[in-house]
């Protein structure tokens, strides 16, 4: 099968090219930056370039995007050009080329301020039913691109699946306070309880979505690690997350002490992947319990695929404030 992967020089794009190549698919990788996993260098905002790349393609995996860390360095117009117009051109060329399925990588950032509980309120229970309230141009443009996918399914019959992925980047956190409060791997491990997913599992979700796209037609799915928490935990997660985590994982504190790690005192949201597991048949492997098992055995916490892809960063330049610019 011939497939097209946009953003093939990025974290997820490279991972997709690696995995699809292992499955013996004919992979067209496109990106504005060259890499060993990019066969065609060009922009998704160039329809003629896309038309050439789309010939004979059956499945499009659209991962190319401007990300949250770009908000401080790129204009709103650039976000609109890449995240909205680029997606529009891809959809148009996909329909013209007779593509059978279109898998769009979105983000849980579309929920924005809807995930921020007020003082004294319980943690947010984030499912697909939560109404998005984007808080920046990144979330807004990704949400608009989701709606374009739905429109092209409705008007042209193109099966489109939207995957709202939680964070899977290996780089340090983009918030200075968190970088200073936690070791990098410590913070990422904590996040597997409520807002992180392993790169290998994201790839699995992409493949599951492609398999089910023709049956489902259209759907939006949260792609995140399975959380142990239940709605009845939400109030306590805001005030004593350490105790709540201990309820589900009684031995975790001893392991954390060995590593000189700490649990977050407060958890303000919980991403729920139930719909993706049920409708896509997706079975994520990496969750907090699995990480604890690896930690206890002294094994690597990351998947082999994530290790192969490694860190890429979001900017070519460095900043006086640290690894990220200040907006």
Automatic annotation (TrEMBL):
InterPro entries: Epimerase_deHydtase, Lipid_A_modif_metabolic_enz, NAD(P)-bd_dom_sf. SUPFAM superfamilies: NAD(P)-binding Rossmann-fold domains. It comes from the Bacteria. Residues 3-172 form the NAD-dependent epimerase/dehydratase domain. It holds the Pfam family Epimerase. PANTHER family: BIFUNCTIONAL POLYMYXIN RESISTANCE PROTEIN ARNA, BLL0593 PROTEIN. This is NAD-dependent epimerase.
């Amino acid at each position: 099968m011939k497939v097209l992967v946009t953003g093939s020089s990025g974290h997820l794009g490279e991972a997709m090219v690696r995995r699809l190549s292992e499955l013996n698919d004919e992979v067209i990788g496109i990106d504005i930056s060259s890499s060993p996993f990019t066969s065609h260098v060009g922009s998704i905002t160039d329809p003629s370039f896309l038309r050439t790349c789309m010939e004979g393609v059956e499945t499009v995996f659209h991962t190319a995007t401007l990300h949250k860390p770009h908000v401080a360095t790129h204009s709103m117009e650039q976000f609109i050009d890449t995240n909205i117009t680029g997606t529009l051109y891809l959809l148009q060329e996909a329909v013209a080329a007779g593509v059978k399925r279109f898998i769009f990588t979105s983000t849980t950032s579309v929920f924005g301020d809807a995930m921020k509980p007020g003082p004294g309120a319980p943690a947010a229970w984030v499912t697909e039913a939560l109404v998005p309230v984007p808080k920046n141009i990144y979330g807004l443009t990704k949400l608009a691109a989701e709606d374009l996918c739905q429109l092209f399914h409705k008007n042209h019959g193109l099966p489109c699946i939207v995957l709202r992925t939680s964070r899977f980047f290996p780089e340090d956190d983009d918030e200075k306070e968190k970088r200073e409060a936690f070791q990098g791997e410590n913070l990422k491990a904590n996040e597997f309880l409520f807002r992180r997913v392993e790169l290998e599992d994201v790839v699995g979700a992409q493949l599951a979505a492609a398999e089910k796209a023709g049956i489902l037609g259209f759907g939006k799915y949260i792609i995140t690690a399975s959380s142990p928490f239940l709605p009845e935990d939400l109030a306590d997660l805001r005030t004593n997350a350490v105790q709540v985590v201990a309820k589900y994982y009684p031995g975790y504190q001893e392991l954390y002490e060995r590593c000189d790690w700490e649990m977050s005192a407060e958890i303000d949201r919980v991403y729920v992947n139930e719909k993706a597991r049920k409708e896509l048949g997706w079975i994520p492997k990496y969750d907090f319990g699995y990480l604890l098992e690896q930690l206890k055995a002294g094994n690597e916490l990351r998947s082999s695929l994530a290790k192969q892809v490694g860190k890429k960063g979001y900017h070519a330049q460095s900043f006086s404030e640290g690894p990220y610019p200040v907006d």
